[in-house]
Design brief:
alpha/beta, Rossmann fold, 3 domains, twelve-stranded mixed beta sheet, 20 helices, 25 strands, 37% helix, globular
């Protein structure tokens, strides 16, 4: 089979205004970024159309390092729905340069289920990530300047919370010292870098409802505390307008196309292990304005992405998914069933059976949200018919959820017709129910964390560091305990220990710290050894990326 990039190059792309017209977006509303990419104004959102559109969430079992193929299934499902005569649009997150040059090599789907042009989407795209990086670091520069210029007046901050960001995996920047050198080179202080998808600006962009809401949220960003313990925000700097100007184009959703020339929105990119893991509310609603079916995804496993999609994105936007698809692979299930990584491509019915506990726990959690659930089996060449039938029987007879094979990677839309038919029929046959959130807005911060940790993860004991307890007290003093909780933890386990696979229960869950995202209006609880600035692997994907005869190689 051809590589992803070879398949992508073999597709004859339509001009982006043709793609826009195919879903009834007026040509004069399309802001071209070259021939095949465009920005679409969020002013086109029609709430009545949004309410009528059928939103479908795609999530997955607990992640493996090789991935589960959630994005490929999301794109494939949109292709399959269009194949059976439905008007479907996919709405995804933008890839980060960090993973592209680190472990993954790309994040635009795979095989014959991709969003295109994949090289541009995986690299600089429309510059949204650069705008977010610039806006975030502009705040850092303005804050440092404010401290420097007002030092002679006796002004200073007892604690500075705001770091810098960069869209590169660079462990050397996790902890740095700034302001070294001459007195005119700034105030010497300890700081650090997060990766851009972990920036609060990214979360703000993805949760904002319009430009005014974006500006309001930027004003509220908490930068630190004065010596008399008063919060110091971007509003105190007086620069919210300038930061909003840097983001005035980035806020508009990006329109691209799939390998079968159907419309796709790709906008925003917070990681789900350190942020809320969903594309922008605006892109989802624009897609729902013009699509009868809209497929979106949430990062990593359902314990992270889906939980945050429901409890944060849906809570704040009023979105109500009609159905959730959970993606599983035989290899992933066997890994969670105790099969060693070097043997997961080999047949193992026993390993598969043991791994079903991970799937079962995710399905129970999704049903607890009030969701209708179907399982998409993402097929690989090494899968056996016996393994597939075991999983089908387990899903349909024991879990009582729909099951379909997805082979969109190898066959495009045709390979997702079975899944598309199951999804469409299930939505028509089963009336949607209102989302049941894990916690109430009025719960305390501690109650919210414990409801997620016990009900979603399976923890039996939740412990808190002194720092975390002080932050909970601070949140109460600031009057922001109504904010939703965003737990930052490993994507490889229900627990905070990346080495514990399967469906672990009755474990201790420790909260190390709580980060106040006052602009994004959520509290980020840090659990375990989670890195907000990832490092590069021993053999980074960057070693395979090159340009040969004018063509980019190594993106996948």
């Amino acid at each position: 089979m051809k590589s992803d990039i070879e398949i992508a190059r073999g597709v004859e792309l339509k001009k982006i205004k043709q793609v826009a017209e195919s879903i009834n977006i007026p040509r004069d509303e399309v802001e071209n970024y070259g021939r095949y990419i465009a920005k679409i104004p969020e002013s086109l959102i029609n709430q009545e159309a949004v309410d009528q559109s059928k939103l479908i969430l795609v999530t997955a079992i607990t992640a493996t390092k090789a991935g589960i193929g959630k994005t490929t299934v999301s794109i494939g499902l949109a292709l399959g729905l269009n194949k059976i005569g439905k008007r479907a649009i996919v709405a995804l997150r933008e890839p980060s340069l960090g993973p592209c040059f680190g472990m993954k090599g790309g994040a635009a789907g795979g095989g014959y289920a991709q969003v295109l042009p994949m090289e541009k989407i995986n690299l600089h795209f429309t510059g949204d990530f650069h705008a977010i990086t610039s806006a975030h670091n502009m705040i850092s520069a303005l804050l440092d300047n404010y401290l420097y210029q007002n030092k002679s007046k006796g002004f200073g901050l007892k604690e500075i919370l705001w770091k810098r960001v960069l869209d590169v995996n660079d462990r050397s920047l996790r902890n740095v010292v700034t302001g070294l050198g001459n007195k005119t080179d700034g105030i010497t202080q300890q700081s650090g870098f997060d990766i851009t998808p972990a920036s609060e600006i990214m979360a703000i962009l993805c949760l904002s409802t319009d430009l005014n809401d974006l500006r309001r949220r930027i004003e509220n960003i908490l930068l630190g505390f004065t010596y008399d313990d008063k919060p110091f925000t971007v509003k105190d700097l007086g620069v919210a307008g300038a930061i909003t100007v840097l983001l005035k184009d980035a806020i508009h959703p990006n329109l691209v196309q799939t390998t079968e020339n159907t419309a796709a929105f790709v906008h925003g990119g917070p990681f789900a292990n350190i942020a809320h893991g969903c594309n922008s509310i605006l892109a989802t609603k624009v897609a729902m304005t013009f699509g009868d079916y809209v497929i979106t995804e949430a990062g990593f496993g359902a314990d992270l992405g889906a939980e945050k999609f429901y409890n944060i994105k849906c809570r704040k936007s009023g979105l109500q998914p009609r159905l959730t698809v959970i993606v599983a692979t035989a290899q992933g299930l066997k890994m969670h069933g105790g099969v060693s990584l070097d043997k997961i491509k080999q047949p193992s019915l026993q390993g598969l059976k043991e791994g079903l506990l991970n799937l079962d726990k995710h399905v129970r959690n999704l049903k607890a949200f009030g969701q209708t659930v179907v399982v998409a089996f993402n097929k690989y060449a090494s899968d056996t018919e016996e393994e597939i039938e075991l999983l089908r029987h387990h899903c349909e007879k024991e879990l009582e959820v729909g099951f379909a094979i997805n082979n969109a990677f190898a066959e495009g839309g045709e390979g997702a017709v079975e899944l598309a038919k199951l999804v469409a029929e299930t939505i028509e046959e089963k009336p949607s129910s209102a989302l049941k959130f894990t916690y109430e807005d009025t719960d305390t911060v501690k109650q919210k964390i414990e409801k997620i940790a016990t009900n979603i993860y399976g923890a039996s004991v939740i412990t808190y560091s002194t720092i975390a307890r002080n932050k909970m007290k601070l949140a109460q003093e600031m009057g922001i305990t109504h904010f939703p909780i965003c737990i930052a933890k490993t994507q490889y386990s229900f627990s905070a220990d990346a080495k514990i696979y399967g469906a672990v229960n009755n474990f201790e869950f420790h909260i190390k710290d709580i980060v106040i995202n006052n602009g994004a209006e959520m509290l980020v609880a840090i659990a375990g050894e989670i890195m907000r600035m990832p490092g590069l692997p021993k053999e980074p994907q960057a070693k395979l990326i090159d340009i040969v005869d004018g063509q980019i190689e190594g993106l996948s």
